[in-house]
Amino acid sequence: DGGITQSPxxxxxxxxxxxxxxxxxxxxxxxMYWYRQDPGxxxxxxxxxxxxxxxxxxxxxxxxxVSREKKESFPLTVTSAQKNPTAFYxxxxxxxxxxxxxxxxxxxxxxxx
Amino acid sequence: xxxVTQLDSQVPVFExxxxxxxxxxxxxxxxxxxxxxxxxNQGLQLLLKYxxxxxxxxxxxxxxxxxxxxxxxxxxxxxxxxxxxxxEYFCAVSRGxxxxxxxxxxxxxxxxx
Lengths: 113, 113
Description:
heterodimer; A: mainly beta; 7-stranded mixed beta sheet; 4-stranded antiparallel beta sheet; 11 strands; about 0% helix; B: 6-stranded mixed beta sheet
């Protein structure tokens, strides 16, 4: 079955530690996205990538970093510089011709204490 | 810049009652419009989309939305809801040619028996 996998589903970290969230897709999609979801704020775009080895900042990129070394993979690192990292993180992908029709993974809930 | 406003953060209704979830957008150019649904602890799924043509679009599970250009709205309706429709619903907009979606804050639909 084609789809997007995110791991782990729940992640706990101590403040000051960097943490990397995994996102893998086997849909052969060119574009991939990372969103952050907080209650009452909808989804906010962190980073997106339209092609391997290229990515752009979204609306709230500060404190985050990404890489796109393979078409299938788009890992997100939440650094210690992110002031409020506890949130639900969603990864999505879309084909180049249909950027607006995005397929989402199940999400990772990160808790930092 | 584009923005999306979902006017209700929560909408409680009784089972088999009709429902309308409101969405307004701001954009000076033509847009593509979407409704996504998020069931508890899951990622988002595309519910329906307006790209062009008929202003009334329908989903396979009985939802419909109407694009109203003069009122810059894309409200979501269902004539009779079911318990299984309990979810959070997100309206999203993409400007033609843009590489990303802008999401509203979400509306939590709660169905009471």
